Give the backbone structure.
Amino acid sequence: MSEADINPLLTIMARLRAPKGGCPWDVEQNFATIAPYTIEEAYEVAEAIAKGDMHELRDELGDLLLQVVFHAQMAAEAGSFTFADVVQSISDKMIRRHPHVFADAEIKTAEAQTANWEVIKEAERAAKKRERTLADVPAALPALMRAQKLQARAARVGFDWPDVSGVIAKIKEELAEVEAAIASGDKAHTEEELGDVLFAVTNLARFVGADAETALRGTNAKFVRRFEFIEDALKADGKHIKDASLDEMETLWNAAKEKERA
């Protein structure tokens, strides 16, 4: 099958948004109402990748592309920019950020490219006259992901621990403060201190070169896998999980862990 032309999809979106003859739901939407769907579709792409399902990934990438087309159509209607402008913008950016491919710069490793990428991004921020270091870390990002990006950005200007021991000590300090807040019975203060613990643990992930979002997603999947093992084992014995004791569930949880290690 030959490469598909984007124009039919652009035409479909324009028709859906047409005040006369379009879809009432599509016509009512704006950037703010569509943004949650855009985020959701990006997560569904990640889910398909995690499952290794290429058929589903194809479909989810199409859904994500539709989100780009939807935003571009609304922008075109407002006279702000078009889909072609979006394509031109990202094309220019990719060329600008890969001088070793499209110009005469020499970058031989992925690590060197990552460092150079950040140098170029910093120059772009300077050109936009963004004086504050953290100003363009999107507030709409999931909190865990944003925390790691904020920490990485601060580290680039030297606001960082000299070694991992400082990060671990900070986690212990924050845990002690959570315990004190819980003991005080102050719910608002406890929540604040819990946030500090999460922030400190996220910083540890960044410091050791791990992605906190990916790490937690993996643990979520592991929890589901082990919990379903408990449910299946109890069902095989003719029991419902609601009727099982905590000791029974704990025993089966440990059995699930042993099975994974085998």
